[in-house]
Specification:
The protein has helices at 17-26, 49-54, 78-86, 100-109, 132-135, and strands spanning 6-13, 33-34, 41-45, 56-61, 66-71, 89-96, 114-120, 125-129, 138-143. The protein has one domain (6-148): 2,3-Dihydroxybiphenyl 1,2-Dioxygenase, domain 1 (Roll). The model has no long low-confidence stretch (mean pLDDT 94). The longest helix has 10 residues, at 17-26. It has 152 residues and is α+β, with helices and mostly antiparallel strands. It has a nine-stranded mixed sheet. Helices cover 26% and strands 35% of the residues.
Length: 152
């Protein structure tokens, strides 16, 4: 199965989470919840760990995928640099995979450069590939923990 086959989420960079959430709710999109940043990572290779921890997210589960609103905050990160350079809008597409490690290896075998990655003890986690120049967005693969799965 191709690694970019099952869309999990679309991530939109924003400057004001509450303002954007209110707009989405005004057009009937909701409810929203805070992204569950939980559990320790065995591996956490990101450009700026403090910036990653400080990012704030609001999520909304629709019938077939999730919308994520991300306020990257003030610390330096790829998301903050993208927001500053291009303004608010879609930053990444996240795809659910059954095996995070195998999907990362497959992406690398395709010649995709990894810009951030994380793996937890339950083998859930993420991997962001540097695809903005080719795809217009960052492509991410992720394995959602079993207790958080909605889209399978």
């Amino acid at each position: 199965m191709p690694i970019f086959n099952q869309l999990h989420h679309v991530c939109v960079l924003v400057r004001d989470l509450e303002e954007k959430q209110k707009f989405y709710e005004s057009v009937g999109i909701g409810p929203w919840f805070d992204y569950p940043k939980s559990g320790a990572y065995l591996e956490f290779d990101v450009p700026n760990a403090a910036a990653s921890r400080a990012m704030r997210y609001k999520c909304c589960d629709l019938e077939n995928f999730q919308i994520q609103l991300c306020d990257p905050g003030e610390l330096d990160s790829p998301q903050k640099r993208h927001l500053d350079a291009h303004g608010e809008g879609v930053y990444q597409l996240g795809f659910e995979v059954p095996d995070r490690n195998a999907a990362e290896a497959e992406g690398r075998a395709m010649g995709l450069e990894v810009v951030a990655r994380g793996r937890k003890t339950d083998e859930s986690g993420f991997c962001y590939f540097d695809t903005k120049a080719q795809a217009g967005v960052v492509l991410e693969i992720r394995k959602t923990p079993d207790d958080q799965k909605k889209f399978s």
